[in-house]
Amino acid sequence: MAEVLARVREIKLFIDGHYRASSENKTFEVYNPATQELIANVHEATKEDVDRACQAARRAFEEGPWRTMTVKERCAKVRRMAEIIMERREELARLEALDVGKPFSVAYEFEIPRAAHNLSFFADFIEHHPSEMYPMEEEFLNYTRYEPVGVAALITPWNLPFMLTTWKLGPCLATGNTAVIKPAEPTPLTVSLLGEIAKEAGIPDGVVNVVQGFGPNSTGEFMTTHPEVDLISFTGETSTGKAIMKNGADTLKRVSFELGGKAANIVFEDADLDKAIPTSIRAAFLNSGQVCLAGSRILVQRSIFDEFVDRFAAAARQLKVGDPQDSNTNMGPLVSKEHYEKVTSYLQIAESEHSTLICGGKRPELTEYLKDGYYLEPTVFVQEDPHARICQEEIFGPIVTLIPFDTEEEALQIANSTQYGLNGVVWTDNLQRAHRVASKVRAGTIWVNCWFVRDLRVPFGGFKKSGIGREGGHHSLEFFTEAKTICLAL
Ligand code: NAD
């Protein structure tokens, strides 16, 4: 594995079953966020390259055999992709840690197996999915077929590149569509391998294409405006979702958006703090807080506020910040210079808003070779005003804000006061309150006395500005298929 990490790799585009250079030989550089060392030169897909990828995907869709083969055969190939991913688990986890900066152990234990599961789960789900049939007395019979839509653009963010891309690719492929994938520009490594993994699994050329590049006036925009793209599944920032929607409007593309979040993690005075604190620490600092579902606003009932602050800060100080490739590391750096600057700008914003710094707020002391990494200590603020910017805006870093509240009603008002509605968390031992609060928080997923657990059949997505549509189980199937009704006279 040392070899995987040591070399500066050249990352090409994967189009129509083959690696190809950028048509204009345009490349961009990717750096290790833990050290600022160069790790890859990446070929940027030009308009011509995107066109080639979309045309290849169109041909693979129209001419088959992908769309026309039996569901059983198609799903077996998707399942084979999952097996190959598990065979390459360590390499993929090393690479995910290398460009994202996340701990190798998290990628190895959780994200790469979950990526494999995304594919095998949807292969199983689609293969066993029933159809509807409605007989009308003795005279007519109605039934429904779910047919693939066509060419899908799958555009993903840098925080969980492999896991989120496979979450889209699984249902896209199992239902018979073809794909043009674009990972985020700072984190191309693992997703760049999906084309060759698909090919090795026996998936025909042109079905899975991977292009690399930026968003506006670059690869992403070329994809979302391309006439051969029928549907766009996008995960990323709310502002990017708006741009994509505008760009896709002229060609009337179907969109599914998973966007930003600013979850309220509400801790009532009857909560079991021995469980709430470690899980809230994970919810705040997993992946250096670069998780859309992060519990970045912790609302704590005033009667237990001081105790919670002390215990939470003590646990935050215990987190081991360091080299992502070291198995003992709990928290790595932020993903890039640009993102580091954005996240650390909130330290000044917090100060100007009279937030109280409880712990963190500076670079941790690390060994020499990590001195240039984009590191920030786990940082905890207390803020009384829930409308302060650090309580409203998605910081997407290891900065969490603790906000006191007195009553359930007040907690709900604060929880629902942002533009986001992706998820929420409730800690209480009172069953009635758990259901009551869960029903009143306006968000797509509410965890009660837990976080980040989900059966893949349930709907996943956001209220308000956190998204459009739902992914998971039959919700993904509906997005990636056209439902056709056939009515037959008997
Ligand atoms: P981003 O929106 O900047 O970029 C996401 C992807 O979109 C990248 O591949 C980027 O190159 C591309 N892109 C940017 N502009 C584009 C354009 N005009 N046209 C087409 N493509 C374009 O997001 P990010 O910074 O990579 O990721 C962080 C964001 O993602 C956060 O807001 C986070 O909450 C969100 N996120 C949401 C979920 C979810 O499930 N709701 C999951 C993970 C991350």
Distance between the termini: 64 Å
Name the CATH superfamily classification of the largest domain. Aldehyde Dehydrogenase, Chain A, domain 1
Briefly note the CATH topology name of the largest domain: Aldehyde Dehydrogenase, Chain A, domain 1
Spans of at least 5 consecutive residues with low confidence: none
Major beta sheet, specifics? 7 strands, mixed
Spatial arrangement of strands, main beta sheet = 15-16-17-14-13-19-20
* Secondary structure tally, helices: 16
| Shape, principal axes of CA atoms | globular
Q: Which CATH-level-2 architecture of the largest domain?
A: 3-Layer(aba) Sandwich
What structural class should be given to the helix and strand makeup? alpha/beta
Small-molecule components bound: nicotinamide-adenine-dinucleotide
Query: From the structure provided, what is the oligomeric state, counting identical versus distinct chains?
Result: single chain
Radius of gyration: 23 Å
Q: Assess the beta-strand content as a share of residues.
A: 15-25%
Number of distinct beta strands: 23
Percent of residues in helices comes to 25-40%
Q: What is the CATH class of the largest domain?
A: Alpha Beta
The number of domains is 2
What do the pLDDT scores average to? 97
